[in-house]
């Protein structure tokens, strides 16, 4: 009965976060005394990140994501999980074995009767895994696992298939957004992966590549910049983004071309090393957006273009441009010589005029609607 009801919740194709939350909640209701958590194991960042959960205090989960995930003594236990096989912490790494740690003395007491767990890897990716964890009091370990073990083994294939389906959907949606973004641009635009592969290109970019005078798309869909110095600049920019170092968005990366036909290559970093939510399970391949512009166009005044396109004031346009460079609102406000409260007020007005609700949406909209002008 438990298995059938839980399997039915995630039986729909590519269940979203709300469906997984409902699954976590219903699991804890059907197995009293448990708390449930879906978590991503990031092997690149070497940390564990919660996805959705039920039964834990949200503030404590946030602390885990920002602090204790990097201090979790159970991390080695999580790394060695075998696919679709439930594993018990009390058998492999009991909490009593790390009583001297900050995690045991500060974090565990606050989450309440959750000093043991049964975990199972339900999805395995190139850089990240996903696991389902059932937490409970260590005193109930043996008794609870007479139920948990067969239930998890039966649900494992269903959860694994649902996660795989979710990843396929996220990849497709992400590719569609990349295509829509570059197609909205007038100048040649290329979304490039860290290995140089072109993931999206607009009609102007395809035409420029066919000319094969400045750039071309070579074997394996690799972007080839036909200037040694410019190619090196692009490679260095990609390496910078891959390392996680800051690269100023919208900056002129390099110039190429012959006298009278000089172009600039402008770069926008796109790679998110950890991402958010279930996006963690399907990290974006996109590394940078490269826009090739005739040098003459760079003389345009972006502040005026934003004022005309969205009705922003000059101050709002300057703030929006700074935010496109990748800085936070406090950093940008300080750079512009205004208070944080003034910056927040201007940003609220910008959101209303551009019809977005978050900074990430603002940057994406400015790129897709007028990135070619900036």
From TrEMBL:
<dbReference type="InterPro" id="IPR036388">
    <property type="entry name" value="WH-like_DNA-bd_sf"/>
</dbReference>
<feature type="domain" description="HTH luxR-type">
    <location>
        <begin position="309"/>
        <end position="366"/>
    </location>
</feature>
<dbReference type="InterPro" id="IPR016032">
    <property type="entry name" value="Sig_transdc_resp-reg_C-effctor"/>
</dbReference>
<dbReference type="InterPro" id="IPR000792">
    <property type="entry name" value="Tscrpt_reg_LuxR_C"/>
</dbReference>
<protein>
    <submittedName>
        <fullName>Helix-turn-helix transcriptional regulator</fullName>
    </submittedName>
</protein>
<dbReference type="GO" id="GO:0006355">
    <property type="term" value="P:regulation of DNA-templated transcription"/>
</dbReference>
<dbReference type="GO" id="GO:0003677">
    <property type="term" value="F:DNA binding"/>
</dbReference>
